[in-house]
């Protein structure tokens, strides 16, 4: 059983990846309901937390039903990272995670996220600063390296473990790849098989089916899998993977009723957490994923993304439920 500090995880845990503008409390609640074992907040700027930026502070919201849950921070300044870890500790998550993997330009250009992959000494200093300033377990999420010519995940894993990092999640791409091309899990397997490495190693990248999850578990020997984009609009993936690993059989695919219920709950919880206006608007990006591949759905998708009030949207869901009663999804 993998352990992170005193947190005991199931034999082969499934983690929900921290995703900006996605992994908020309403979405995490859905994923927990459908089998996620460990989840993280959206990544939070250390500078934003110290400046008391409202958006950064709101991302600190966690709820007991989510546990175990980690809060993820990023930044390129040791003092700011140490101070933000102290702020994070006040809301009592189960762990603090550091993002050394985000490839987007606005983060990398500040010497944070995957930008730190070019300077492992800095990565170690930033991590040390966080570890010293909190009593919570500290974990890290990162990538293989900056580019193909500078894959340094072996050194990164050893040095982070040596200073007290308690688990490492590795996205099996370089920063140069962003989210394109194939992920290469052979590098993750090499880290896991290093006799010096005793902390849990979680793999991330391209897991989008129960078959692939089982294949990668057996082939690469990791301690668990972190799932990101495949869970957007499809929180059922966690329980589907667990069921397949246990029985070799597939759970029935989510029905139209299941999808409507998930999208409706997601909307209601978003409105409860954010307020009606923001909850309604920010939910619009999710509908395409919930109702992907449904014949003749364009008219209803249009309604979902243009209707402004919660009660009117609930009426749209009611209408969809009636019109698509008995709709059969193709396996």
Describe the 3D structure.
This protein is α/β, with parallel strands linked by helices. It is built from 15 helices and eleven strands. Strand 1 and strand 2 (7-8) form a beta hairpin. Helix 1 (25-33) runs antiparallel to helix 11 and helix 9 (210-220) packs across helix 10 (237-247). The longest helix has 19 residues, at 256-274. The protein starts with a strand and ends in an 8-residue tail after the last helix.
H/E order of the elements? EEEHEEHHEHEHHEHEHEHEHHHHHH
Largest beta sheet: what is the strand line-up? 3-4-6-7-8-9-10-11
Q: What's the end-to-end separation, in Å?
A: 34 Å
Helix and strand composition category? alpha/beta
Radius of gyration: 20 Å
Strand content: 5-15%
Count of DSSP E strands?
A: 11
Q: Tell me, briefly, the overall form.
A: globular
The largest pleated sheet is described as:
8 strands, parallel, barrel
What is the helical fraction, as a range of percent? Answer: 40-55%
The oligomeric status of these chains comes to: single chain
Overall mean confidence score, pLDDT: 92
In terms of per-residue confidence, which ranges show pLDDT below 50 for 5 or more consecutive residues?
A: none
User: Helix tally?
Assistant: 15
Question: What would a concise description of this structure say?
Answer:
The protein is α/β, with parallel strands linked by helices and 331 residues long.
Key features of this structure:
11 strands, 13% strand, 331 residues, alpha/beta, globular
């Amino acid at each position: 059983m993998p352990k992170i500090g005193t947190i005991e995880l199931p034999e082969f845990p499934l983690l929900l990846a921290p995703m900006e503008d996605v992994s908020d409390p309403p979405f995490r609640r859905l994923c927990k309901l459908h089998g996620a074992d460990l989840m993280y907040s959206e990544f939070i700027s250390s500078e934003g937390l110290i400046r008391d930026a409202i958006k950064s502070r709101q991302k600190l919201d966690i709820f007991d039903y989510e546990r175990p849950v980690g809060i993820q921070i990023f930044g390129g300044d040791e003092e700011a990272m140490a101070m933000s870890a102290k702020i994070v500790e006040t809301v009592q998550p189960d762990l603090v995670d550091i993002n050394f993997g985000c490839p987007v330009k606005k983060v990398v250009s500040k010497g944070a996220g995957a930008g730190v992959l070019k300077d492992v000494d800095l990565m170690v200093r930033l991590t040390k600063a966080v570890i010293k300033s909190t009593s919570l377990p500290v974990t890290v999420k990162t990538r293989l390296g900056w580019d193909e010519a500078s894959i340094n995940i072996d050194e990164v894993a050893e040095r982070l473990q040596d200073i007290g990092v308690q688990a490492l999640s590795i996205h099996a791409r370089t920063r140069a790849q962003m989210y394109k091309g194939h992920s290469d899990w052979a590098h993750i397997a090499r880290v896991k098989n290093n006799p010096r490495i005793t902390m849990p190693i979680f793999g991330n990248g391209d897991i989008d089916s129960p078959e692939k999850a089982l294949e990668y578990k057996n082939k690469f020997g990791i301690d668990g899998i972190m799932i990101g984009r495949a869970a957007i609009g499809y929180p059922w993936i966690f329980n589907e993977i667990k069921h397949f690993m246990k029985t070799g059989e597939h759970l029935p695919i989510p029905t139209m009723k299941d999808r409507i219920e998930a999208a409706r709950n997601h909307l209601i919880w978003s409105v409860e957490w954010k307020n009606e206006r923001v909850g309604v608007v920010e939910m619009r990006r999710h509908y395409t994923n919930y109702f992907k591949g449904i014949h003749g759905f364009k008219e209803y998708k249009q309604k979902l993304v243009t209707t402004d009030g919660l009660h009117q949207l609930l009426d749209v869901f009611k209408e969809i439920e009636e019109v698509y009663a008995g709709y059969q999804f193709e396996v």
